[in-house]
Design brief:
This is Aminotriazole resistance protein. Keywords: Membrane, Transmembrane, Transmembrane helix. It comes from Pontivivens marinum. There is one protein chain. The protein starts with 13 loop residues before the first helix and ends in an 8-residue tail after the last helix. It has a two-stranded antiparallel sheet. Helices cover 69% and strands 3% of the residues. It is built from six helices and two strands. With 190 residues, the protein is mostly helical. It has one domain: Arp2/3 complex 21 kDa subunit ARPC3 (Orthogonal Bundle). The longest helix is centred in the C-terminal third of the chain and has 34 residues.
Amino acid sequence: MHNTTLPEENGSSLFPLVLSIVAAAATGVLWTYANPIQLVPGVIQWRIFAFLPPLIGILLGWKSGFICGYLGTIIWSLLAGTFIPAHSLIVDGIAVGLTGMIPGMLFNPATTTFDKKTLIRIAAVCLAVGLVMVVAVSASLAFLGIFPFWWAVGYLGLSDIVPMLIGTPLLVASAQKILTAAHPSGFKRF
């Protein structure tokens, strides 16, 4: 069964591009200021909005998901005072960008019905891409001498993977309905 509520038309991809940049800014700000649960006080917070890049990727397209994750990471690191050029621009930015890109490549609302089986697959993809991201970021932080590798894996896994694993499948169908209501003629994913 296919769902055609967000058809991919030959129209402009300006809408998802602009929305992905807005979502990236929101992601960076939310990661900086709306994480009340401190896993390691002053260092690592539980990112309750870590689901935003994969959600944006699924709804708006894989490029939009990458933009949301990459720019969101850069904005967060600048606002939080944790910007490290090589780490933030290369490893962290790209790894978090992939958490938005890969789900966006695998799931398209124009051809996917968000039934229970699909939501479980979305959670599995978020888990897999989250693990890759956490390992890459932890290796970078260990290489730079900031945190021990396994320490970083544990805390970053809790910080990012848990919210992606729960939030993305929980919110994707509702977010799709909101987008459809706001843009009933559809748009080209970016």
